[in-house]
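hi! just following up on the protien thing from before. the input was this:
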Amino acid sequence: MRAVIALLLLAPLAACDRQTGPAPQANVTDAAKPTEPEPAGTLDISQRGKVPPSEKFTGPDGKPTSIAAFAGKPVLVNLWATWCGPCVKELPSLDRLAVRAGDRLQVLVVNQDDTKQAVDPVPGWWAAHPLPHLALYRDAPNALGFAFASGMLPTTVLYDANGKEVWRIVGGMDWDGPRANTLLAEFVS
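and the predicted 3d structure came back as:
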């Protein structure tokens, strides 16, 4: 009898290390599933009215250019790099933005990758990721990046037709999303 009592007393203890699985979830429709939040960089208006930096960068033709060369039309300057996940993620939406904006806004994507590497990653990356409405601008010494002084990629700055800064976004952005559409309402239909 003592053996039966001991067995009954020890039986619950033997199951202590067994874990119960999570409770089953109720069926969730696709519409109710959580979606990935829209990337939302930080909006900065502290430089509003400032002229663009004069630092040169390389155009798609291999010749030096500057933001001032685009005066007379609003220009959105995006600094990015191939190694920057948020940069790479937002480039397709910048390409679509270039289409929606048409002639009302010039979208410049200026690469910040260092060309002192043994193999320059940018040409291969650019060829493998079609962005037909964007041209590849390069700033290998990162002079423009240092002049913007945001300390982060991606950084995107909007200049008005008079060459004055309107705002900048530091961090990734969904340029198809409602926040971007609000910020660019006068340029995008």
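Strands lie at 40-44, 57-58, 64-65, 75-80, 106-111, 136-138, 155-159, 165-173.
The chain is about 25% helix and 20% strand.
cheers
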